[in-house]
UniProtKB/TrEMBL annotation:
Protein name per its UniProtKB record: D-aminoacyl-tRNA deacylase
Primary location: cytoplasm
Top-rank taxon, per record: Bacteria
Motif position, Gly-cisPro motif, important for rejection of L-amino acids: 138-139
Amino acid sequence: MIALIQRVTEARVTVDGATIGAIGAGLLALVGVEPGDGDPQVRRIADRLLNYRVFADADGRMNLGLAQTGGGLLLVSQFTLAADTRSGLRPGFSTAAPPDEAERIFSELVTTCREKHAGGVETGRFGAHMKVSLVNDGPVTFLLRA
């Protein structure tokens, strides 16, 4: 499982012109599910999303995680993160989980994060053509792997 996280001052996802998920300050996480991902990967990524220290403490150092700041979390499924881009000029998607499996695993991640984070967890719509807008704060962007 892969998560590209961005510290944001705001982020939103729209489908067909309607906002379906939005947060203020917090994290936007674009999530790719790979074949074989399951409960251990879901638990590991959820823990990292909620506790990865990307927010400033009183001294201005990145020492606080989302769970400590209470910010929002916007989870967006993005199978292209799991693409094989090692060669050629076209990505291969055999390294991404099949849609049914990916949707199930992504839903487990959403549920786990909602159970563990009181700061609010929003989502995009799995499999939809989404427009994601954000204001990256920093910019601060990290690629996490389970």
